Amino acid sequence: MFKKTLSSSGYRDPEVLVGLDLGTSKVTVVVAEREGPSGEAQIIGIGQAPSNGIRKGLIVNIDQTVKSLKHAIEDAENMVGLDLTEATVAFSGGDVQSVKTKGMISLGRAPRTVMQFDIERVIESAQANVSVPSGKMILHTIPVEYSLDGNSGIDDPLGMTAMRLDIELESVIVPVAMVQNVRNCVEKAGLEVSGLVIKPLASALGALTPEESVVGSAVVDIGGGTCGVAVFVEGRPKHLAVVSVGGDHITNDVATVLKIPINKAEEIKKEVDMFSDPRPGAPENLELEHMGRNYSYSMSELTDIVQCRVEELFSVLIKAEIAASGAAMLPGGLIITGGGSKSIGIDHYLTRIMNMPVRMSLPLDSGRMPPSRSGAEYTCAAGIIRYVLEQERDPFRFIGNSFDPSPIMTSTVDQGGWEKGLSTVGKGGHSIIDAIIKLFKELF
Q: What's the predicted TM-score (pTM) here?
């Protein structure tokens, strides 16, 4: 994540933050720099390479994936003139669960000030209610909402006074094998993994404005093999999910129906206008040359093929994930990003079928990114830097796993939440015995 060095004059060089977006279509390495711990981060370079060995967000060939990673890392190093040593990695996969639990602690017989230790205790109490199946682990522990003496909507209880503290917690659960494969590939490519983040969360941080995250919005990152879904309400994620359908599925549909190669299907897919009615002057047919022969395809037929898959994806799968968030209303609407969001007219088409406002989002930091690498397909990469900064600003906003495989591998449904809960509150956490002893010292 950080690379700190001392210059020959004795002054500390700027801190370097590195993010790695492990996608189905491409691997992206983003490098940011800032002056001092509280300085503003500036993206100074983005490296990329075609992604081989990854299918639907999952690593299916380690050697090919490592080669892609090395090419992307080399591209980034050449751009910024630095040797990169570690990175925070964003990844996805179809088997991602988002589980909500609640916890409560007493602060004593009389009202008193909430301390950091109390926040750690209430998080542990909510984690105790999480059942993690064998072979899986908690990647993120995210406080969704705090309550003090029954009054909900508390954003940060630290320093406030009450007798009881409640919390609603979201736990993002992923397979251990998936995480280990990601770490192994990144380390074989020459980088240490300083942190992991699920791609829907990074994409949302890279695309959502503060106003949209507060009023309630859904972010969909349309990637090559998957779609990441993140629902934010009152500034916090209410639901995170990965849908194993992406832009490649639309390409496959076009190739199958028209009986043409995948590369040709990808070319003509980009020419399809998603508007229901053709724009004035739009061609009625699309001409294609393949294997020395000329072909002509009806634009209306191509549009129908693309629209059918997009409608199925959003009106069924994406709607189901939004409903799972429990958010009654999303005044901020739907924000789409990622490479698939660049399809012509897709925002207008989705407005009709989703019955809510839809906008296509570039990265919030696009104005400070390299001009040729600032499109919607780089939103997740830019969001990784924001994720790192958010973790620094508030350690309890997104609590990551400590990466110790031993407690992860032994977590089962029967063991409940205490062991894994204690392993995930890694930053300044306490064992449950220490917690009880400290509480009694405070009260008596």
A: 0.86
